[in-house]
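Hi R.,

Here are the chain sequences for the assembly we discussed:
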Amino acid sequence: SYELTQPPSVSVSPGQTASIPCSGDKLGDKHTCWFQQKPGQSPVLVIYQDNKRPSGIPERFSGSNSGNTVTLTISGTQAMDEADYYCQAWDSGTYVFGTGTKVTVL
Amino acid sequence: EVQLVESGGGLVQPGGSLRLSCAASGFTFSNYWMTWVRQAPGRGLEWVANMNGDGSVTFYVDSVKGRFTISRDNAKNSLYLQMSSLRAEDTAVYYCTRDTYSYGGRDYWGQGTLVTVSS
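And here is the predicted structure of the full complex:
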């Protein structure tokens, strides 16, 4: 079965840039999304179709897709961005989520 | 305002059955693909199943094929997940989601309903 791999954790200082990679076989050929989940809350869509932001998502969130890796970048990270982040890929009607990355803002 | 409200979760014995419901409001339900996503306690997200707007197309994750059935009633603005032959590994919070954007861009999620499979 298809798998998406993310680092378990990423630490970032306030105001700095956090980069969260997600890797999978031929991932660059698939459509990807990113979700943010804070403790005790339902996930929130932050990036769809590789690099589009839904209404209400700050511009500091961006997505990129290259080769076997997609990356969520949070520029000027704020304390409120501390959360778990999941990538998701679409492949022929079915979906796979990444393993998830906990972002800590130190 | 878009709202998705799940119900039907609870404690069930291994091998048992349960039907989850999701009541949708605030949008034209029949226009959207709908999806069930689950999350085991302390674990990551797992896509379970989805269905197109008129109910003619469905997809399932391999681990639930033959055991779970997704369905919808557009007249009642409701999505369902019939779960049978439940296993301990099906224990999770089950979320109902609306796929607003193509390729999995689900921007509305319910609050989730907890299913616990245990003897």
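Chain B has a mean pLDDT of 97. The two ends of chain B are 40 Å apart (CA to CA).

Let me know if anything looks off.

Best,
T.
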